[in-house]
Amino acid sequence: MKAEIICVGTELLLGDIINTNATWLANQLKDLGIDLYYISTVGDNRRRMEEVFKTAYQRSDLVIITGGLGPTEDDLTREVVSAVTGRRLRFYQELADQINEKFKKFKRKMTPNNLRQAYLPEGAEVIKNRVGTAPGLYLKVNNTIFVALPGVPREMKINFTEEVLPRLKKELPEKGIILSRLLRICGIGESAMEEKVKDIIQNQSNPTIAPLAGNSEVYLKVTAKAASKKEAEALLKDTVDQLYQRLGMYIYGENDETLELVVGKILKKHGLKLAIAESCTGGLIGHRITNIPGSSDYFERGFVTYSNEAKIEELGVPEDVIVRYGAVSPETAKAMAEGVLENSRADIAVAVTGIAGPGGGTPEKPVGLVYCAIADKSGRVDLYDFHFWGEREWIKYSTSQYTLYHLWKYLINKFSVEPKNTQ
Amino acid sequence: MKAEIICVGTELLLGDIINTNATWLANQLKDLGIDLYYISTVGDNRRRMEEVFKTAYQRSDLVIITGGLGPTEDDLTREVVSAVTGRRLRFYQELADQINEKFKKFKRKMTPNNLRQAYLPEGAEVIKNRVGTAPGLYLKVNNTIFVALPGVPREMKINFTEEVLPRLKKELPEKGIILSRLLRICGIGESAMEEKVKDIIQNQSNPTIAPLAGNSEVYLKVTAKAASKKEAEALLKDTVDQLYQRLGMYIYGENDETLELVVGKILKKHGLKLAIAESCTGGLIGHRITNIPGSSDYFERGFVTYSNEAKIEELGVPEDVIVRYGAVSPETAKAMAEGVLENSRADIAVAVTGIAGPGGGTPEKPVGLVYCAIADKSGRVDLYDFHFWGEREWIKYSTSQYTLYHLWKYLINKFSVEPKNTQ
């Protein structure tokens, strides 16, 4: 199956947006074993869209379009697919009902242009959009499949995964199976990590092992091809086992398991409550922890003690400690974590204090210096210092990442859990 | 001048690399006033490259190609430009000498395939590459200009800026100027917003007005073309003034001015301290506020009162209020905001409580229902209710967005500031 991606949107031609949709879709097609031959970007212009869609119709078996599905006059994807395939636009009552309902439910007034979204080319299946308003379409015509998805990356990804992927899998002949496992690695840099597993990577062709860079973490993507799922899984297991032996506690999770997820799982399992005190991260750690559904089971409260007064008043950090050692010091981090335990109902407390920049650094305490403390009811307090480099948001994110990583390690050690997660 | 970008490289079709070259070049062309109509990506495949290059030759005045200029058999850009334009490849002695010299300088052995880089289509000017090995080409043939640049982003950018930009400027008839202003709009949906300004958008060709969707906000991008900067600015001002008249307080900022930034600016200017209490957002609002450098001047502290106990103990929310009205209720939001004022040193307090889902919803209080309170020392408390739909992270983000928007409106009204920000 020869595939082609068309991204519609003048904003892409003006350089306002980096086209991450195409990259994401390219990866999806690769995982399906579908060959992608072209990616095209075209503006919201009827004539030029027709030209590009027509070419795609002639040369490709699968045409995935993103963008141009909104309610405005500029949104022409429905019309152009219709014109190019000769399938007239038809009014879908179910779509009109859904659109009406969404507006009613949220008590907003529906403007008439929204009903443009209720028209699709004759014969098209509706791609439901449970996370937005613009429905997509799936149309098979003369052995070419047209798929149109919203341009908003989040909606596009969810709709593709839930609605398009199952349909495409049915179209593919039964052949080889490609399986991947993504190992998520923190606490070590990309080149140091690669050095540890270089020989395994080099002596390996199936599975392949690809190192990938993340945000304050790195990944190893292990991909196996085989005739059956069982065989592919066995191939993966052998290689992944070797990588776990080399990298041990640097691997904190696999696939979609973020740090906030793996931390939350252990807390939940052991019925523990967590509370946190954040200074330089300003709430980011709490935000990440509460991104996990059900986190209210273990996340008890957070203190964003940005000012010194807040550290003293909320957490009982002795003023003397701040004066003598500074707000950014191991002593203050320790007092913050202990203060969290005293001023909450949590079993485990985490505290961070650091200099996110760009101002506030000194030669002794530069921008990017962060202290982290993890304390529990036994009186144990673990202290860490981080030294990041970069911009404010990067330092904040890296702090959240390393803090969660050390919290995960603390929990793993506390419960003597085997970190190895062989599926 | 109609331009087109072609990115060559199978790695782009495999999704291994995000195509930042195209975005960067798109911005360069915009600044030059050159209209970019298409971006195409194609793999290192001779037949498909020929097809894409040929189409571009037929429809565009300027074709900028990145990638495919290296020394390997896979690097086909030179050959394909030659085939499509009918200009035979010619040996450039100067290029061969340069390549030889570079290898000598770095004491590496030159393999014969490197000499492939010494061939260019007849009539092509050499694009020097002072930061890498692969030279590019600049070829004018039948009123179409072909530019080929290396795919490595750093080399591509330096070569474009130093070698291509001066040549293109000479080709342009008059130095037209393009200027844009991005209006940032919150508190209204995309279609309702467009309805309000539809006639202005439709009756307008210079400046153009493009509606763009953001995350829980929308944009209007106003772009003017003129002979001089002054003239472009005047054109922009006229149109932008009209849009402000229609949209008023929905426009909270322009260009890079985020909500956290405009809120912070007013707080700082008036020497006010802000403290917040977050329930469903888990720290996200504090995180966003502290993304702004210098936010410690006005952000005093935050309470992430995730559990009911935290709401009662940290903020003094009466247990009775939670029991009678629920943790997600206007009454609780109000008590939280008042509690923030009493338990901090802030002048203004913001509190949110809601149901981020996926669990925890009821028919009366569905997932996505959020209450927000803004309180100040005068005893005034403003209450808002939001009704979002979507996933957990989306509801959290939308809550942070609408909370910051209402805080901005509160501050604008408090200080009778004119929101209109005409540059």
From TrEMBL, chains A, B:
MoaB/Mog domain ranges (all copies): 4-170
SUPFAM superfamilies: CinA-like, Molybdenum cofactor biosynthesis proteins
NCBIfam families for this protein: cinA_nterm, molyb_syn, PncC_domain, PRK00549.1
Family: Belongs to the CinA family.
InterPro entries hit by this protein: CinA (IPR050101), CinA-like_C (IPR036653), CinA_C (IPR008136), CinA_KH (IPR041424), Competence-induced_CinA (IPR008135), MoaB/Mog-like_dom_sf (IPR036425), MoaB/Mog_dom (IPR001453)
Record-given protein name: Putative competence-damage inducible protein
Superkingdom field: Bacteria
HAMAP family to which the protein is assigned, alphabetical: CinA_B
Transmembrane segments: none
One Pfam entry name: CinA
